[in-house]
Design brief:
Blueprint lengths: L5 H22 L7 H13 L4 E3 L8 H13 L2 H10 L2 E3 L1
Antiparallel strand pairs: 1-2
């Protein structure tokens, strides 16, 4: 039978805490856009200007928002725009 000292138990607990902190930091990564990506997103929004307009500050756009705009531009699927309206990124005119 192995007997663990209080120091070794503390060491294991600290290692587990460090690993969980690393996992939390990867969940909250930075998904903001670069200036060039923001410019591209705004150009995609210009194409849908007659129906929709941007409801938030362009600096608050995320990678996911950009991907949805690209998907709409490629496939013309209105569902992607509806998702952006539900999220509050776009609003109908």
């Amino acid at each position: 039978m192995t007997v663990l000292s209080s120091e070794s138990i503390y060491s294991v607990a600290t290692t587990t805490n460090d690993q969980s902190n690393q996992n939390q930091s990867t969940v909250h990564e930075d998904y903001t856009l670069t200036p060039k990506q923001i410019e591209y997103a705004l150009s995609l929004i210009e194409k849908i200007k007659p129906e929709f307009e941007l409801a938030i500050d362009p600096a608050r756009l995320t990678i996911k928002d950009l991907n949805r705009l690209i998907a709409y531009n490629r496939y013309k699927n209105k569902g992607t725009l509806v998702n952006l309206v539900k999220k509050g990124v776009l609003r109908r005119r």
